[in-house]
Structure formats: structure tokens, C-alpha cells
Design a protein that fits this description.
The protein is α/β, with parallel strands linked by helices and 416 residues long. The chain has helices spanning 22-31, 48-59, 85-88, 98-105, 124-131, 164-174, 190-202, 233-245, 261-270, 307-314, 334-340, 370-380, 393-396, 402-408; strands at residues 4-7, 13-17, 38-42, 63-66, 70-74, 82-83, 107-111, 136-140, 143-147, 156-158, 180-184, 205-210, 213-217, 225-228, 249-253, 273-276, 280-284, 293-295, 321-324, 345-348, 351-354, 364-366, 386-390, 412-415. The longest helix has 13 residues, at 190-202. The termini are close together.
């Protein structure tokens, strides 16, 4: 099994090009199931979650070809409606094929999803909302078996709580429903905006009528398009924190800084100097890192997917910091490993109390989930000796060529 070896105490300097967004690409790939026309997708990140989604689509009958610059999806012979456990078990986003399959065929059998072990993340919001479009479903032996005998029909739906996945599934499904659908209490993550832009370019009729309310007029025909995926804001945030924690000087390219305004403001408060331009930014880390209180929240709040990374940075702050995790109930699994490296972090319910003034010690470490994996890299970058991170398959789910990108800006890191 592969692992990473990291020799720390290097200031990161140079330029990093941010990859396409995994969390935007996954629902967009699922949404291609709606059409039998050829769809060209550009800026698709080369990460294992994307490869799994492509394999899932191919198992459904999609013909997909990929080269360095683009991926071509051809669903002209796509007729299967069964998404197996073997493919969906490793990736939460597999459930996103449910909406388009129901919209296209009126039937789907999809395995209950897997992914990182960071919380329960039930799909009841997806299913209850789809039922309001005319879907009947049951759970049988780990599968959702769903059908819409009379086709999907538009309706007014208010999500019980803000859910990224449910918002995406319903937007895709309602795009092919008869009549008009109004979705309220929607998630408004940039990746959802990217999905809406993609669907509208294909010929769907979707508009935001207020901050968290969407109007969707169902269509029956779509057109062939080429679409470029947005940048990965979590990858960008991770490298911002890497620069801050190593007192480095990084330029991040291929981004839209206003999308990560919250993260930029918090890093400035902590002490980093950040120069913002139209599609790039420069960050300089400061030796003095100020303490702060942070709450994770749906966009435009601070993202849960950066909670583990910012925690590592706050271990270096001058005083006590507090992080309140409001999205997932089991997202502090990295704390035990950070404490093994010398951090002083205690957990009280959904709060992490970080004492600060930590000098991380090198160690052999075990990754528990995608974002926890990268938090261990960030800590290891500040140590004097060699750290080893095991189970990095988690890391490969969401970070494209991370060791190559870090090497390029001065980190001493290798995969073995």
C-alpha cells in the first residue's frame, strides 16, 4: 500500500495551478445522463473519485473517452438503470445518478452510498424531496429502488435542512419534470451554481429567484455542449493554509478569489498577507499566527472541508483557538493523530479547543478520511524529521498530484 514520506521545515515558495473542482465535476458528470447528445467536459480533475464516477457511468452504458485536455461523454446507447454497491460504496456522490436516471427512465436502482467516515449523511432528504416529484421508493438490501410510473411532475419543495447533495439531485431531476418546480432552502455552494450553469447551457431552464430559492421549468430536449469545470476551492484553501503554516510565499493560479472570500478574510485575520487579483492571488505566511474562533457553516460560511486544515494552522497560534463543527458529527478523527505529533487539542461535543504554541514532532501517521489526510501533511511540513502518512488512498480521492505540486514549491515529499 502506498504512503507518503515528508521531511519538514521548508518554506513553500512558487506558483501552484489549482485543478478543476471534484465537488462540481461529480454532479455535472451525473447530470450528463439526462442527454443522449455528446458532452465535452474540460478541467476535469484527475482524482480517484472522478475515476470512480466515470466507471459508474460506464457501468450504466455511457461511452466516455478522456485525454489530457477534455473528457467526452456519449450517452446515445446508455440504457441501464442499476448502480451497483461495488461502485457507489467508496463515494458519496454515487447517489447523484438517482435523479437523472429517474428523470430519464422513470426507474432506478441505486446502492446506498459510501465515502469518508465523517458522519451519517443520510439520504432521506433526497428521497422525501423526490417523492414530491411523483417518485415512489423503497430500501431493499442496501439499495434504493425508485420509480415514477407517471413520470416526474413539478412541485413546490422546501428542504428540511440545507443539503448540498439533495439540492443537486433535485435540480437535475426537476430539469426533466413536467411543469414547474420551486426548490426552497437550497444549498448555494459555488459547485451548485456551476451545475446550474452547466444544465442551462445544455438547454435547461433554471433560475435563482432569491438567495436560496430556485425555479426550474422542465424541458424534454437538450443540446450538445462543451463545458469547463470551475476551480477546486477546497484545494485552493488547502494550499493557502500550507503557505501560511510554513511562512511561505505562494501564488495560486486558475482561481476566482471572490469565491473563497471567507477563507481569505479568516487567513488575513490570523496574520497572513494576501494580494488578490482577478484570477490569481499571492499569500505570504506570517511567523506570528493569531488565535481565532471559527464555526463551520454552509456556503458562504467557512467550509467543513477546510476544518482539519485550519486546525493545524491554529495549533501554531499564540493563544487558545476554538473550532465549532456544525456540519458533520464525526469530523474530528484527525485530532488523535495531531495530538500524537505534539498538538494540544481537546474535544467538547462539536467543539475542538486548540491550546496553540505547538511544535509538531515527526511521526508515523494514519489517514482516516480525505481532508484529515491533508491535515497530516500540513503538520508534517513544519517538523524537523521524517513523517510517514499511511492509507493515502483517501488523499487521492480529492487532490490531484499533491506531492508533485508541493515538490514544485519546495516541499521535501515523496510517495513510496
Amino acid at each position: 500500500m502506498q504512503k507518503l514520506e515528508i521531511f519538514g521545515s521548508k518554506k513553500l515558495k512558487g506558483q501552484i495551478k489549482i485543478s478543476g473542482s471534484k465537488n462540481a465535476a461529480l454532479p455535472i458528470l451525473a447530470a450528463t445522463l439526462l442527454t443522449n447528445k455528446k458532452i465535452i467536459i474540460k478541467n476535469l480533475p484527475n482524482v480517484s473519485d472522478i475515476k470512480t464516477m466515470i466507471t459508474l457511468l460506464q457501468s450504466l452504458g455511457s461511452r466516455i473517452t478522456t485525454n489530457k485536455s477534455q473528457t467526452i461523454v456519449d450517452n446515445s446507447k446508455q440504457k441501464k438503470k442499476f448502480a451497483s454497491y461495488n461502485l457507489v460504496k467508496t463515494m458519496r456522490a454515487g447517489i447523484l445518478v438517482l435523479g437523472p436516471l429517474l428523470a430519464k427512465f422513470g426507474f432506478a436502482k441505486v446502492s446506498l452510498p459510501g465515502g469518508c467516515a465523517i458522519g451519517t449523511r443520510p439520504i432521506d432528504i433526497h428521497l422525501k424531496s423526490l417523492s414530491k416529484l411523483g417518485v415512489k421508493y423503497k430500501i431493499d438490501q442496501g439499495y434504493v429502488i425508485a420509480e415514477a410510473p407517471k413520470g416526474l411532475k413539478g412541485n413546490k419543495i422546501r428542504f428540511a435542512k440545507i443539503s448540498v447533495g439533495a439540492t443537486e439531485n433535485l435540480i437535475i431531476a426537476a430539469s426533466f419534470a413536467k411543469g414547474t418546480t420551486i426548490l426552497s432552502n437550497c444549498a448555494i455552494e459555488p459547485e451548485i451554481k456551476d451545475l446550474v450553469n452547466f444544465l442551462n447551457k445544455m438547454g435547461c431552464k433554471i433560475e435563482w429567484i432569491s438567495t436560496r430559492k430556485i425555479k426550474i421549468i422542465g424541458v424534454s430536449k437538450l443540446k450538445e455542449i462543451s463545458y469547463t469545470i470551475m476551480f477546486d476551492r477546497i484545494e485552493a484553501g488547502t494550499y493557502l493554509i500550507a503557505a501560511a503554516i510554513t511562512q511561505g510565499n505562494l501564488i495560486l493560479q486558475n482561481i476566482i478569489p471572490k469565491v473563497i472570500k471567507t477563507e481569505i478574510e479568516i487567513l488575513k485575520k490570523i496574520g497572513s498577507k494576501i494580494l488578490v487579483k482577478k484570477n490569481w492571488l499571492q499569500i505570504k505566511g506570517n511567523k506570528k499566527i493569531r488565535n481565532i474562533k471559527i464555526k463551520t457553516a454552509p456556503y458562504p460560511g467557512f467550509p467543513t472541508d477546510l476544518q482539519a486544515q485550519i486546525m493545524v494552522l491554529l495549533c501554531k497560534s499564540n493563544k487558545k483557538s476554538i473550532i465549532q463543527e456544525n456540519i458533520f458529527e464525526n469530523r474530528f478523527m484527525h485530532v488523535a493523530e495531531l495530538n500524537r505529533m505534539g498538538a494540544k487539542i481537546s474535544i467538547d461535543g462539536n467543539k475542538a479547543i486548540i491550546k496553540g504554541n505547538t511544535n509538531f514532532q515527526s511521526a508515523e501517521l494514519m489517514a482516516t478520511d480525505l481532508r484529515a489526510s491533508v491535515s497530516l501533511i500540513l503538520a508534517a511540513l513544519t517538523t524537523q524529521g521524517k513523517s510517514v502518512i499511511n492509507r493515502i488512498y483517501h488523499l487521492d480521492r480529492g487532490y490531484e498530484n499533491i506531492e508533485k505540486k508541493l515538490k514544485k514549491v519546495g516541499a521535501k515529499i515523496k510517495r513510496v
